[in-house]
Write a structure and sequence with these properties.
The protein is of the alpha/beta class and 389 residues long. The chain is built from 14 helices and eleven strands. The chain folds into two domains: 95 residues, Nonspecific Lipid-transfer Protein, Chain A (2-Layer Sandwich), CATH 3.30.1050; 283 residues, Vaccinia Virus protein VP39 (Rossmann fold, 3-Layer(aba) Sandwich). Strands 7-6-5-8-9-11-10 form a seven-stranded mixed β-sheet, sandwiched between helices. Strands 2-1-3-4 form a four-stranded mixed β-sheet, covered by helices on one side. The protein is elongated, with a radius of gyration of 22 Å. Keywords: Lipid metabolism, Methyltransferase, S-adenosyl-L-methionine, Transferase. This is Cyclopropane fatty acid synthase.
Length: 389
Amino acid sequence: MISKFLLKSMFKQWKNGDYQVVFWDNSVYRNGEHSPKFTLKIHRPLKFSDIKKDMSLTIAEAYMDGVIDIEGSMDEVMHSLYLQTNYEHLHKHDNAKAIQKPIKESSNISKHYDLGNDFYSIWLDETLSYSCAYFKKDDDTLHAAQLQKLDHTLKKLHLKPGEKLLDIGCGWGYLSVKAAQEYGAQVMGITISSEQYKQANKRVQELGLEDKVTIKLLNYQDLDGRLYRFDKVVSVGMFEHVGKDNLPFYFKKVKEVLKRGGMFLLHSILCCFEGKTNAWVDKYIFPGGYLPSLREVMSVMSECDFHLLMAESLRIHYAKTLDIWRDNFNHNLDQVKRLGYDERFIRMWDLYLRTCASAFRVGSADLFQLLLTNSVDNTFPLTKEYIYQ
């Protein structure tokens, strides 16, 4: 077992923030000069096997196992961790260990998205949109905000009837369907999740849109510019799975299938610093994922001759989206349990939604929509008023 002395030594490395740790014998370790803003309660000594090199992984796994509980504001926890990460980044510049090996993402993505359509339908809205919603009013329902996100996205692309649209990472197909039904586009959606592929195809068939929408079980890496050419490309919420070493290849593939002057809208979570991948999220939530910085993305896209037309942060929108997802999840735990998910999974998923919402609120993560053109396009509208008409 790990003694309190060793645990205190571990927490002393977590220098930022006003917090306290209450041990199993009710003794207390405090950090900071002011009243604690959050409390970690450790219910029993940790085993040597519980202690990981990464502190966030140690705490998160102990939370999943019910060994640790977190009381107080998760925003304060994430702000403290963000300050610690910032400190380490400025003083160590040790990002080499976080660089991934090149990956073929199929198996990694399946681990997350193939949890089952029944699971996601419990806490997502009716569109099964597993990405940031767009709130025009504070009291918008999640469903209304997701529909607004789809329109906000498609309007930015200045989509015209008959244009060919590629939807990379089409999910359960709602954006692809909406683009065809309401904007008159000819759409090809691709996913590497078999569960999403089945559901998206079912939706297309039920609506009789087989002549306008094609859903393929296809990795973007296997797109062939000799077979496919598109006027517009959209990618919502899949770029996070590409991986650091695959960023240049991703943009080259988009360029290969996008007509010269064509528009590309990239909707993705970005982070503040390069090379930082949360060990717990990588192990349990998004294996093989990587959140690039805005600086990284701008550098890679410029090398591929993509030109930025617009960049919009939807950071606060994503925090609100995640709060609603978490409420939906926790209000329907009986359904989650009936699907066979145990208490450890439930604590894991709740922690994932809770910490992500806080990460967006404190600014350690951001959500950007980047509108790009393949090479220079001087025919684009002079103002952005067309988006809001």
